[in-house]
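Hi U.,

Before I forget, here's the chain from the pilot set. I'm dumping it here mostly so it's searchable later in email.
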Amino acid sequence: MPAPQPSQPSPTPQPSQPSQTSQRSQSQRSQPSQPSQPSQTPQSTHADQAAPAPTSALSPVVPPVLAEVVRSGFVEGRHRGSLVVLGADGAVELALGEVTAPVFPRSSNKPMQAAGVLRAGLDLAGERLALAAASHSGEPFHWDLVRKMLDEYGLDPALLQCPPDLPLDAEERDTYLASGAVPDRVTMNCSGKHTAMLAVCAQQGWPLETYLDPEHPLQRIIHRVVEDAAGEPVAAVGTDGCGAPLMAISLVGLARAFRFFVAAEPGSAERRVADAMRAHPEYVAGSRRADTWLMREVPGTLSKMGAEAVQAVALPDGRALAFKIEDGATRALGPVLARALALLGVDAPVVERIRRAPLLGGGREVGEIRAAF
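Structure:
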């Protein structure tokens, strides 16, 4: 006797799918309001003071579904988030969810941190500058260059205050462990950024042991760079996974910052960072990463992802996008990024490559994660 078939759940009502034109016209009719003035950067608390209550920038309104998890034709999960698209003139063309509330951009902040290092006086270029803005995969050419840079500036690797870690890329991690190596600060994906920060501090005679303090001269410069590029005040300062200060801005501000870097005057700190990243994308990410593919295959594009599923991209004509998946699921990054690029009119094979996020069952493909907007 055949097994009984499970009853199918009632379909979840889905919002109507407006066309790209109607979405954009709707967002143009209702521009997002300017973010409210941020509170002051919290000061360190003394032992006898109560720690401040946690705050949240998440909107009380449930954000829209940006991606669906589809297995065997059945939607088994959804990823919600917020996304903004800017036109070539910098105006908001599409806004999904809450795009004016502050978020932590995580490593999408790295181009601004690298520009801060340049503004502080360090003369970096080429692969070295790209590595200063990197979340590298931990391939040998990444940590070889980190070690060379440390040697060039007379710095001991023990001065790095990023935590010891394994290579970010899974294949590189397996190879690294098979060689008998252990977690190291140099192989941590932020080691290029930390090396550049230490180098400029050594050059300027600034304290090395406190280079990650938000009140350190270098971090104050980076704070100003973030505000200049985003066109809005930093709403909060936290601590990133690597230990560096992390400045919160809105998704509109993040997209605006990437647009600012691409459109900056040649020779400026921002343009030098953008040019180095676009010329050497493998040093920004790695051989098997979407940021590398996009910057290599769509000339003039600036792209940088961040932890907790943040992504920012600017095209050479000034169009830009930024988004965050609310639950931090990086598996949704590719499909959402590919859909956003398609809305921007990017027509290149790399978009389909980025879009692919297959689900496996029994070792074969049985579904996918797909964009839902």
